[in-house]
Amino acid sequence: MVLALHLFPLPASNSTFTYEDVELAFKKLKPTSHADIPYIYFSHLLNFLSPKLAVILSNCLGQGIFPSSFKLASVSPLYKGKGSRFDVLLYRPISHLPLLRKLLEKMIAHKLSFYVETKLTNKQHGFRRHRSCMTAVAVLSDKITRAIDRKNNICGAVFVNLRRAFDYVNPFILLNTTPTCYGF
Q1: Per-residue pLDDT tens for 72-121?
Q2: Taking the domains of the chain in order of start, what are their residue ranges?
Q3: How is the chain split among helix, strand and coil, in percent rounded to 5?
Q4: pTM summary value
Q5: I need a surface site. Which of 35, 40, 55, 171 has the fewest CB within 10 A?
């Protein structure tokens, strides 16, 4: 019996993976000894398994199903490195996720980031590859410097703290709005 979390299904064009997607995602994974499928075995069988996994994982995404076996994790304690090893507060939990889940997450993240990059303006710096708060500050300081160099210009800035913004967003409205607004 397979229990699954049912998400909204995606159109076939957005939910199809190729064997190249599987291989690229696998190469980005870090080798681990705690995986359900040993990394070394999977790496030797990658050429054989990647076309089949592309079909299976595409079906999961296309039908909006996240298999319950992907939701399981083994947890082990990791010592923080300071103080007595007998103090339980000096350990933190580490979750070891199934290899196929990590593979699916990498593939979705790659597909989603590629899609989002095409929709964002160049003025967006947060949560983008090769951009950060520092690049935003550099652009802002450049604009301020240019405005000051030009005489008779007024220069100002407004800063907004959006920390914990998603705590105030209704998830049902967000899920219902996302497919129609962004073409998912």
Answers
A1: 888 889 999 888 889 888 999 998 888 889 999 999 888 888 888 888 88
A2: 1-119, 123-184
A3: 50, 10, 40
A4: 0.64
A5: 171
DSSP 30-60: PP-SS-SS-HHHHHHHHHHHHHHHHHHHHHH
Is residue 14 classed as helix, strand or coil in its secondary structure? coil
Structure tokens at 93: 């939990």
Look over the chain and give the mean of its residue pLDDT values, rounded to a whole number: 80
What is the token pair recorded at 1? Answer: 């019996």
CA 13 to the chain's CA centroid? 20
- Supply the pLDDT for residue 20: 93
Q: Token digits for 170?
A: 């209704």
The Cα 15–Cα 64 span in angstroms is 9
